[in-house]
Amino acid sequence: MKGIKNKKFIPNLSYDCVIFGFNGINLKILILEYHNTGLFALPGGFIKKNQSLQDAVNKGVEERTGIKNVFLDQFQVFGKPERSDPAAMHRILVANDKNLEKNEWMMDRFITVGHYALINYEDVNPKPDHLSDSIDWYDIDSVPKLMMDHNEIVNKALEVLRNNISEKIIGMNLLPIKFTMKQLQQVFEAILDQTLRRTSFQRKMLSLDILQRHEKLFEGKAHKAPYLYSFK
Amino acid sequence: MKGIKNKKFIPNLSYDCVIFGFNGINLKILILEYHNTGLFALPGGFIKKNQSLQDAVNKGVEERTGIKNVFLDQFQVFGKPERSDPAAMHRILVANDKNLEKNEWMMDRFITVGHYALINYEDVNPKPDHLSDSIDWYDIDSVPKLMMDHNEIVNKALEVLRNNISEKIIGMNLLPIKFTMKQLQQVFEAILDQTLRRTSFQRKMLSLDILQRHEKLFEGKAHKAPYLYSFK
DNA sequence: AATTATTGTCATAAAGTGAGACAATAGAAT
DNA sequence: ATTCTATTGTCTCACTTTATGACAATAATT
Question: Fewer CB within 10 Å: C terminus or N terminus of chain B?
Answer without folding.
Answer: N
